[in-house]
Amino acid sequence: MRYFEQNNIKLPFSKEEKLFIYSFYSKKKNIHKYFTLIKPETILYSWKKAINNIWTYNSTCKRKGRPQISYKIRNLIKSMKVDNYLWGCLRIRDELIKLNIDISRETIRKIISDFRKQNIIKPNYSWSTFLRSHWNSLFACDFFTVDFFVGCIPSSKT
Question: Which domain of life is it from (predicted)?
Fold first, then answer.
């Protein structure tokens, strides 16, 4: 009441309603709990909730973009790679195209690398493994490059 009087705000209540409210206020001190429409805590709570909704909207909204590759196709790629470890991404892609499954080479490469990280697919053989397995039959091996047209070994001096 004092707030309305200080700010010269006229209440839209009739005289009878004002008298009823005044009598309730005078008899009971805690009656203002029942007449408050909005508490400050309610406003602060709704404000915090609105701010949280703004910041979490991006993570809760439906993601757009390409659909994920199904687990059946992933398992098919895994079984093709495990059964034929010499096949690369292009060969696997060609075999999938024969089955009317069109997936890019990069997607197959990412799927295979994910399986390698999980130790489901063993990594490819490295040069050191190749050299160890063929050591007895190797006579000479040259890993240096020679420029064919000039005929000299490239040096670090320019």
Answer: Bacteria
